[in-house]
């Protein structure tokens, strides 16, 4: 199967589209110290559009900027106050993990994890302003949802029985619910706009994706897994479709996706894949649209047609014969070594004599050897 790719820019016309942006803070606490590299008993980080902007851990106990523009635009007082706030939350987490462990009658020797994530999501408008979309305030315990705030109804939601006691207590504190709603809808949005203004030069620099369409081995011998990978793009909003003869494949066609994931360099990637028959001669394409960079790229995986293969083989055989004659002239009356064909049960080198019988062998071996190389180059296995 051969790959054909083309990219089309949307042109110089100005396209107005909305972008979603987010500001979130994630806190993670362990009930016991974790003796592993990179793990701390308590960590906190701020993320702007999934890009880390500040960081704190229980070992260093200082809130630090993770972007140069955060350091440049915020006074030292901001970082000092942030450090004190993180220290207070570190103590709060320690107390509340103990409460939850006792409530659930868990062993002190086991390690448990309590996480809190809160933040906001906004959408840019045509006039450049940011409109609130939703707020997020949720707790997770040992990898399971524990408690979350319903911003519309101003109530706490307990998905498990162990969280119901906390829900009742927090629902009774009206000032807590009002503060949480106010922070999510106003204060968080104000900070997000401010941070985006600080780093606008870097944040608004859109990076288009590179797209790869390829196949890999499936568990079923007659099948192959067709994968479309878009990577290296920023921001993360992207549209990706796998098509069969122009029709967009969906979940009903068993298309699967890993979703948008972060790369190590603050860009993103998305990988979609579907299992198809090796014998399928339909035309498969991957279409990717990245609005921020105004790029529309489509990559096609052409079917492996027998007719095309025969045409190429017919064109190559005369060339192989000519090359074979040339090689025969060079090898005549000499002794030499020839590479064995792949899969031979003999050793990797074969000694050939110059007897009259071997002249014919000398003629055929170069042709066969070159044919194997050409076959592998033009007709690789799926």
Task: Provide an overview of this structure.
With 382 residues, the protein is of the alpha+beta class. It folds into 3 domains: 184 residues, MHC class I-like antigen recognition-like (Murine Class I Major Histocompatibility Complex, H2-DB, Chain A, domain 1); 94 residues, Immunoglobulins (Immunoglobulin-like), CATH 2.60.40; 73 residues, no CATH class. It has 7 helices and 19 strands. Strands 5-4-3-2-6-7-8-9 form an 8-stranded antiparallel sheet. Strand 16 and strand 17 form a beta hairpin. Helix 6 packs antiparallel against helix 7. The N terminus and C terminus are likely disordered.
Structural class: alpha+beta
Question: How many domains, in number, for the residues?
Answer: 3
Cα distance spanning the termini: 7 Å
The CATH architecture assignment of the largest domain turns out to be 2-Layer Sandwich
The portion of residues forming beta strands comes to 35-45%
* CATH class descriptor name of the largest domain: Alpha Beta
What is the H/E order?
EEEEEHHEEEEHHHEEEEEEEEHEEH
Adjacency order of strands in the biggest sheet = 5-4-3-2-6-7-8-9
Low-confidence residue ranges: 1-16, 305-315, 325-382
Shape: globular
- CATH-assigned homologous superfamily of the largest domain: MHC class I-like antigen recognition-like
Average of per-residue pLDDT values: 81
- Number of separate helices: 7
Number of strands: 19
Q: Do you know the CATH topology of the largest domain?
A: Murine Class I Major Histocompatibility Complex, H2-DB, Chain A, domain 1
Characterize the biggest β-sheet: 8 strands, antiparallel
Q: Evaluate the radius of gyration.
A: 31 Å
Estimated helix fraction: 25-40%
């Amino acid at each position: 199967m051969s790959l054909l790719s083309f990219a089309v820019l949307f042109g110089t016309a100005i396209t107005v589209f909305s972008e979603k942006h987010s500001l979130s803070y994630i806190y993670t606490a362990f009930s016991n110290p974790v003796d592993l590299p990179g793990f701390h008993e308590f960590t906190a980080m701020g993320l702007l559009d999934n890009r880390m902007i500040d960081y704190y851990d229980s070992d260093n106990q200082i809130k630090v900027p993770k972007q140069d523009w955060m350091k440049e635009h915020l006074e030292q007082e901001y970082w000092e106050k942030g450090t004190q706030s993180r220290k207070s939350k570190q103590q709060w987490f320690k107390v509340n993990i103990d409460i939850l462990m006792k409530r659930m009658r868990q062993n002190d020797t086991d390690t448990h994890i309590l996480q809190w994530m809160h933040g906001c999501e906004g959408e840019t408008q045509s006039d450049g302003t940011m409109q609130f979309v939703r707020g997020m305030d949720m707790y997770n315990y040992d990898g399971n949802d524990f408690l979350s705030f319903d911003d519309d109804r101003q109530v706490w939601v307990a998905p498990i029985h162990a969280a119901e006691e906390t829900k009742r207590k927090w629902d009774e504190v009206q000032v807590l619910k009002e503060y949480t709603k106010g922070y999510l809808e106003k204060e968080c949005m104000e900070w997000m706009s401010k941070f985006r203004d600080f780093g606008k030069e870097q944040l608004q620099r859109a990076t288009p994706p590179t797209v790869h369409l390829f196949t890999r081995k499936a568990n079923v011998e007659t099948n192959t897994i067709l994968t479309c990978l878009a990577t290296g793009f920023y921001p993360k909003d992207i549209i990706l479709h796998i098509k069969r003869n122009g029709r967009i494949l969906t979940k009903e066609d068993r298309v699967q996706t890993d979703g948008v994931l972060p790369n190590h360099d603050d860009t993103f990637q998305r990988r979609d894949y579907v299992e198809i028959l090796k014998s399928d001669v339909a035309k498969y394409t991957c279409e990717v649209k990245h609005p921020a960079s105004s790029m529309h790229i489509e990559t096609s995986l052409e079917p492996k047609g027998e007719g095309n293969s025969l045409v190429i083989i017919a064109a190559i055989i005369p060339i192989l014969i000519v090359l074979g004659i040339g090689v025969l002239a060079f090898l005549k009356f000499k002794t030499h070594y020839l590479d064995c064909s792949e899969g031979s049960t003999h050793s990797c080198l074969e000694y050939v004599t110059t007897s009259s019988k071997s002249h014919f062998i000398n003629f055929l071996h170069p042709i066969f050897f070159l044919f194997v190389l050409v076959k592998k180059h033009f007709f690789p296995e799926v």
